[in-house]
Amino acid sequence: xxxxxxTLFATLLAATPGVARGPTAYDPGDFVEYWSAARVHAAxxxxxxxxxxxxxxxxxxxxxxxxxxVMLWTPPWTLPLYxxxxxxxxxxxxxxxxAAQALLLVLSAAALxxxxxxxxxxxxxxxxxxxxxxxxxxxxxxxxxxxGFVLAGLAGFVYFRTRGYPVAAGLxxxxxxxxxxxxxxxxxxLLLDARTPAGRRVLLGGVTAIAVGSLLALVPxxxxxxxxxxxxxxxxxxxxxxxxxxxxxxxxxxxxMAIDPAQxxxxxxxxxxxxxxxxxxxxxxxxxxxxxxRLPLVVLVSLLTAPYGAxxxxxxxLIVPVTATFFTALGTGRAVVVVAAVALHVVRYPxxxxxxxxxDGWAVTPVALAGxxxxxxxxxxxxxxx
Length: 386
What we know:
Elements: H1 2-13, H2 31-42, H3 50-61, H4 79-86, H5 90-116, H6 125-132, H7 136-142, H8 147-162, H9 166-173, H10 184-192, H11 197-218, H12 224-233, H13 251-259, H14 269-284, H15 291-304, H16 319-332, H17 335-353, H18 364-379
């Protein structure tokens, strides 16, 4: 495991840009928002105020005249995750951050191998091969993003849930709440699963983890939640860009542009319909909900209908359905199925890798997901697990 981690970490670091202008080892990308927010929050300030983030970001980015802050948009319960990195100098913090994301990816791959590998001796190689051949993974490191937490939440949840440790599944699964807007149908199913004893224990673990994170976030600043809510509803200013003004590569954004560009709420319509559809399926399903079988398609539908976000680096969550698909394809013993799965996975690579900015090629997300959706159909077929 240690050798695999070091190899993967070195490979992924090689994909990052060269030396940055500021005092970081690499171009800090979005890592600057987590580090500066942690600094501001530790001092009792408002981590969702661009004006308070800017002085720190100007220093790290080497841009003394910068006027627009890279805003923090994750909920307050995520602040304890960033706090340890905020205590370090920018260079050390960034290297530690990238190492943490690499570790989360490797642990997620190992968990998925255990869930979908069926105990086969070569099972561990499949998810690591997926990691190294997914273009979304290098983008995660290029942008210094935090999506590794969310992937670990999904992988850890399904690992502990299928092994009969529901409270642990909830505790680890709470990491998906780092970016809750990406997985609204998944969250809906978790709530509905509380009708069962195991589902209630999962919910207990998840609520406990989020509650602890929230309480820790309130220690330096009791107004953190109010400040987060205010930031979400505030219009764009010279120092900040509101969520509603993002140009996102999503179907939900295109739908809003077609109906009423001024109304951000239209971007939530696809996710709302997906949640209602899954709620109907879950209520009508009399047999126990098989999370291992269902999760790959749930992740795909969640990303396809996301109201905002779901940038190319967030697509590391596709490692869940792609990994499950490869194990299913290999399990069939049919060369044509394996070749089809490999081909659909390979096609996604150049599409995602060619992005030059987050706003370019809005169709990248739906195109990549559409290809994976076909593959995931293979993964969700077969007999439900006991």
